[in-house]
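Thread: quick sanity check before group meeting

JM: Hey all, I'm pulling together slides for Thursday and realized we never actually wrote out the predicted structure for the chain we discussed last week. Dropping the sequence here so it's in one place. If anyone has concerns about the input, flag it before I start.
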Amino acid sequence: MKILVGLRPNPAGRRPAPAKGHYPLESRVNYFWKFLCKICFVLFLLVGFPLSVFAKDANTLVAAGKGEAYDLIEAAGFGYEVPDNSREHKQNPVRHIKQVYDNDLKTYVFAFQIHALIDDDRGIKSVTDRQRVEVKTYDKSPASMTAKEGETLLMRWKMRLPLGFKVTNKFCHLHQLKGTDNRKGTADVKHPLITLTACEKKNGSKQFELRYFNRKNRKMTVVKSANLEEFLGKWVEITEKVTFGVNKPQNHNGSYSIKITRLRDNKELFSYSSDELDLWQTDSPVLRPKWGIYRSLGENRSLENMLRDEEIRFNEFSITKS
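JM (edit): ok, ran it. Output follows.
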C-alpha cells in the first residue's frame, strides 16, 4: 500500500487538504483579506467613529445647485421666514430664497431676494412697517443648533452684500441672535440680543454696525461700527462665537467674539470681543441665530421709496455647539 506523505484522508471525494504549513495561493489571499478587514474595523473604532460623532456636532447648510432651496434649508434643520404669498405675490407666489451660481466663488450659493414696494413681513397684513427674508434655527431645529443657558455656539457663514446697497436711518438687520418665546408667551424677546445691522447715520455716512441689547436699561447700543462701503460687492467670511449667560440678569454673563474677513485677499474688515456683556434674554428657553435681510419700511411703508429691490447672497452656514 502506497502512503502519500503530507496528505490527510480524503473522505467523500474531497480535495486533499494541504500539509501543515503549506497553503495554496487562494487560501493565503483569503486570509490576507480577512486580516485587512479586521485592521480596517479597528481603525474605524479608533479614528472613524470618533470623527463621525464629532461631525454630528457641526450643522451645515450649503447650496447644492439642485432641488429647491427651501427643501435644502429644512433638510439641514433650519427654518425660514419669507413673504412668498404677500400682497402682489398672493395670486402668483414668488420664492424669495433661491440657488444661483456665483461667478466669484465658482459655486452655487443662496440668493435672498427682497422687493421694496411689494414685500411685507411674512404676509401678515397688520404689519406695515417692515419686511423680511430670513433663515433661522428655531424650536424645531436639533438641540445642537440652539443654545441653552451657559452653552456655546460657534457660527460661520459667507455673505455678499450688493454694490449700491440701499439703507435708511432705520434698522436693516443682516444677522440676529434672538431668544424663542416660552409656553406662557412671557419671554423678553421683543428685541434681538445681538445684530449685524446696516444703516445711514445723520451725517449721511453708511455704517455696518454690531448692536447689543442691554436688558437692564432696555437700550440697543452700537458696540462697534465700520464703513459699510468696505463690505459691498465682496464676499466675506464671518466667524462668531458666543458663550451664552444665564437667565438672571448680571454683568460678565457670557462671552462674545466676531471676526469678518474679506475672502478675496483675506483682509480682516471687522473684529470685536468682550467678556462683559449680559448674554441672555429673560425667560427664553433657548437662543438661536437668524440670517438674511430684515429691514424697516417706516410707519405705513413711508420709507419704501428710499429703498430698492435687493439680492444678498449667503452660503456655507455652520453651527458647532459645545
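AS: nice. Residues 230 and 269 are 7 Å apart (CA to CA). The chain has a mean pLDDT of 87.
JM: adding both to the slides.
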